[in-house]
Amino acid sequence: MRRPFNTITIRDVAQSLNISISTVSRALRDTYDVSQTTRQKVLEKASELNYKPNYSAIGLVQGKTHNISIILPLVTNYYFSTVITGIQQVAYNRDYNVILYLTNDSQEKELQIIQNLPLGCLDGLLVSTSFRSNAFGHYQKIIKEGSPVVFFDRSVDGVHTSRVLQDDFNGAYQATEHLIASGYTKIAHITGPKEMIITQKRLAGYRQALRRYKLPLNDKWVIHSGFSQECGEQDTLHLLEGGSKPDAIFAINDRKAIGAMVALKKKNIRIGTQIGVAGFTNDPISGIISPTLTTVAEPAFEIGKISCELLLKHLQKKYFEPEEIILPGKLYIRESTMR
User: Fold this and answer.
1) Which of 8, 69, 116, 218 has minimal CB crowding within 10 Å?
2) Which residues in 307-337 are b (16+ Cβ under 10 Å) and which e?
């Protein structure tokens, strides 16, 4: 069979140095029985010849494909696109390919993807679940069959594996506390679906801040819906329809916070002066819009980077003990909460 054009093999490297193929192979793998002098010569010659490892062949020997998959809700917002950048940096530096699957935040699509995953062609999974994920049993099965799973941002409870999360509770507490310190006393929370862990933790942080400063907990000022700007706008309009109106709004993310600001502008309500608004993400648009948006920055790049590093640890060690890593956010105070 004719060899593909310009394909350099390990045999070519060995012949050009007049050494055995096995010596080149061991040098590339940096085994103990090859001297550093020989290894350096092999690496230099491999670079000179533009030799690329054949991971399909290596995978047959080592039982690895050098492919990892990401399952996530969407890529159309700043947060998830930044997480992917962090994942790619680690994966590509370690010669892993990344395969992306999108659920569009649909539990049905998530299940369909999981059930049809070509696990024989993947070494492991990085997962941020859909907001109504019920795939607990499926992830357990994948792990049991030998493919590690690491959750980031969103996860399902009960799966014994690593996960990397932002500190949702303390981020929400910090944002609410800032609103209180700015003089707001009737603070509403427009949040996500009730069943989501991220919703529950940010709601708990918001409530804890109100309790600490002895402010009223008004259930009518907590509205559950989706994560979009449109949901933020509709939630805010609903808050303004009530008899007792809030004087500040804490949104579960920046998209909903911007939706709240759109609704307030439509009602000719001065943002900050009359009703303060705080978000959660630190999307770049939060520093561009007028007024600029107070928000809690999520460490998206670090979440992607660390989650990929954890997955590779799972792949390297058969009995790697799962870790849960929670990264802190940072409050950015801007015009939307200035009275």
Assistant:
1) 116
2) bbbbbbbbbeeeebebeeeeeebebbebebb
